[in-house]
Amino acid sequence: MAESDTNARALNMPPPPVPTGPQKRKTLVEQAGEPIKRFAPTQPGSRPASAAGQLNSKGSIPRQASSTRPSSHAYHRNASNATLSSSIGSGYRAVSLQSQRPQSAMDASRTHKNSQGIGRPMTVFGMSLNGPGTGEVVGNPKGMPPISSCPNGNPRGHKEMVRQGSDESHVRCDSCGAIKSRAPKSAREVSLCTAMHGLKLDENSMQPAPTVAQDTPVTPSQIPRPVQASACQGGRTQNDLPRSLAPSPSKSPKKPPQPLPKYLTRDSNTEIAGWDHDSRLHQVESDFAHLKGEMSRITNERSSMEDMIDMYKTKIEEIEENRKKLISTNAVLQMDLDAVKTQLSTSHVALEDSKRYHNITIDDLQRQHRRELDDVQRDKDEDVRHELRRHQEEMEDMRRRLQKALEEEKSLRQDEVRSLTSDSVLSQQKLQLELDKQQRVIQSIRDEFQQSQAEVTRERQLSHVLRAQLSEAVSSALELETSMGSLRAHIKFLESDNKTQSQAFADLETRMQNAIRSATEANDKLRNEETLRRKLHNQVQELKGNIRVFCRVRPPSKIDTEAARITYPDNESDSREVEVLGLPEKSSLGTVTTKTNSFAFDRVFGPQSANADVFGEISQLVQSALDGYNVCIFCYGQTGSGKTFTMSSKDGMIPLAVNQIYDGAKSLETKGWKYAMEGSFVEVYNENLNDLLGKADEIDKKKLEIRHEMQKGKTTITDVTVVELDSPNKVENMLRDASSNRSVAATNANERSSRSHSVFILKLIGENSMTGERSEGTLNLVDLAGSERLSHSGATGDRLKETQSINKSLSCLGDVIGALGQGKKGSHVPYRNSKLTNLLQFSLGGNSKTLMFVMISPLQAHLSETLTSLKFATKVHNTHIGTAKRQTKTKD
Ligand SMILES: Nc1ncnc2c1ncn2[C@@H]1O[C@H](COP(=O)(O)OP(=O)(O)OP(=O)(O)O)[C@@H](O)[C@H]1O
């Protein structure tokens, strides 16, 4: 402004136009009176709102202060603003005055001073007050007008300070009405501020104050000249006015003229004309006080601004803090978001996995379903195939059987045809021989004929020679011709005999057919006769009784001592009675009598009888077994009575029975029967069942169980060794093995065989392919344990146990036979009371034929046991068991 004014004066140009209206430039005083609102929050993107910056942008006076004062304050503010702008954000650009204007030397010096810690900012007034050598000189250097402190632009500041009160310490500006403290002239040592309190502004007494300090020597140019009221406002040109009184450039020239103040009177003009140092001093002091107040206000403002800055800093820090918090929150949220995203992706993956798993499961289930369907289909196909195969096999089997039957029939027919053919061939051969013989005869006749012809020829030749002999030769020829005729007739006869032979062949064929027919009829008759035979045989056996008792007395051995007196009353080949002389008995009268015990059985065999004789009687029962009946033959008697000899010796019942069965089976083959034979050998020892054909060391360890099939009437033994008896030799081996096992199991072979029951079981299964009949019979050959009574044996310990079990089983056998003898249908038969009767359930009674051998020892020492055995056998013999049923089946 100073430069522009100077330039304006130098060029005699009017001052630059000043914006009017709302853009009116304000003075410092005006600005000091304004409330602190310069630091109102700026709009985003606006320029930094520094006071100086704002003023400069408007081109107002503060440019002078701001331009001449490199204010540290401004610098701080700019710095603060810069910090703020940098903190708040882009677009808020701090503007420094130094960046706007190059630094002058004076600025530099001031800056230097400020940099040296001088707190008070350099001002225009500071320059004046602190001028070199002047000390208290007040005024404008180089005639610069004083800066008005009046906000209304009064060129002399507050025009007149009216004294108020007695102390006159306060003055009031007649233009703006501001009351200022004013120091009294006489008390200069008192601070101007204190003096200002005594001043009083009075509008009426306001006089134009001198603007020159009292102590300052007044130059003519500095003495204000009296001005007219009009000139004060507009009657005087600017050039006429001293610079100090020149109107403020801030004042608009277009401003309407102000009314003249009252003080423009003659008196006041006189006062103005004189330079009032005191008033001037007061004026300066008041300005100084005003400036000081302004300074303090600015300082306060600065401090408040600094507070605000601090507050803003705090706010910025808070914002920074919030920002950091927000950043951290944002980071946390971002992490949460990432976690959520991760969870989401995990969930998505899990969902995808679950979906995939479900799809896989569905696929698996479908696959499994398909597989099961395939399996079912396959099973179905397999079943169908199996059924087809079974049908095919059945058909094949049937076809085979038919083929076999056909082939058998064919072979039979072929045999018959062959025999017939051989017969016919023989007859043919005979005929051929005869024919050859005849042919030889013919040949000889022919030879004779040829010889005769030769002789005829010779005779003819001779006839030529011998005419005489012609007649003889003719007659001879006739004879020869006659014989030739006869020969020809013979040949013709022979030729006709061939036809006879053919006829004979035909007759033979007819006879052969007749023979075949008659053979077939004979076979049929034979089969019928076989069936009839079986029926009759069974009827005979039934008539003989389904339970029969044979008695056999063994011969005494060399070592045997006294023999019992056993007699056979009938003494015939077919003996049935036996008498045993009992022990002597003493009667009450003292007489000793000996009773003869007579016994009658189905057959009695004396000591001379051999096993073969015995078997001759039982072979009919064996035949019954072959015919399909259950047969039980057991030997009963005391130890050493010959039971084992009768049953298991080389010519005993078992081998003989098997041999007979082989022979019978073979003879029955011609009648269409085919048999399979299975043998097993067990023993009942101490009520346990042992396998005599198994391993010797298992004989007392292997547990055999008896199983009954009540519907079929069959008994089977679990885990028992079964030998297929397809040859007679196998029976011998089997008996040898059984005997060997028995001897291993016993401490003494005789003892063991005496203390256990042995049962040979022979199953006979026959099938007749011609009639379709099927028979299943069982032959049980039982060698019972010794029947001696417990009281007589005197056994103890194991022997006692053995004897008890033997007696029990024999007693049970008697009970069973007794129950069967009662013949009550449906009555209980105690088969299960002992192992032996349980095993022989289907071979004792009802559906079976039973034969008991009662074996008798010939010794007197065994007489008591002999009598007991005979009595038991008599009981059995008196038992009548119901009719046996044959187990035959007809093939479907
Ligand atoms: N009919 C007989 N002819 C010749 N000897 C016989 C006859 N019966 C038995 N013996 C002989 O008598 C003896 C005893 O016979 P065996 O062993 O058969 O009696 P057991 O009743 O079976 O005795 P255990 O009950 O102890 O087995 C044997 O030596 C045997 O050879």
UniProtKB/TrEMBL annotation:
Q: Where does ATP bind?
A: G637, Q638, T639, G640, S641, G642, K643, T644
Q: What Gene Ontology biological process does one annotation of this record name? A: microtubule-based movement
**Name of the protein:** Kinesin-like protein
Q: Which gene encodes it?
A: KAR3
What GO molecular function annotations does the UniProt record carry, in alphabetical order?
Answer: ATP binding; microtubule binding; minus-end-directed microtubule motor activity
Q: Where is the composition biased (Polar residues)?
A: 53-71, 78-89, 204-222
Q: Which family does it belong to?
A: Belongs to the TRAFAC class myosin-kinesin ATPase superfamily. Kinesin family. KIN-14 subfamily.
Q: Where located?
A: Cytoplasm, Cytoskeleton
Organism name? Heterodermia speciosa
Domain Kinesin motor stretches:
546-879
Q: Which GO terms describe its cellular component?
A: microtubule
SUPFAM superfamilies reported in the protein's UniProt record: P-loop containing nucleoside triphosphate hydrolases
Which residue ranges does the record annotate as region Disordered? 1-120, 204-265, 371-397
- What domain of life does the UniProt record list for this protein's source? Eukaryota
- UniProt cross-references to InterPro entries, sorted A to Z: Kinesin-like_fam, Kinesin_motor_CS, Kinesin_motor_dom, Kinesin_motor_dom_sf, P-loop_NTPase
Q: Where is it mainly found?
A: cytoplasm
What PROSITE patterns would the database entry show? KINESIN_MOTOR_1, KINESIN_MOTOR_2
Where are stretches of biased composition, namely Low complexity? 241-251
Pfam families (alphabetical): Kinesin (PF00225)
Record keywords, A-Z: ATP-binding, Coiled coil, Cytoplasm, Cytoskeleton, Microtubule, Motor protein, Nucleotide-binding
Q: Which residues form a coiled coil?
A: 302-336, 505-546
Quick check: keyword Nucleotide-binding in the entry? yes
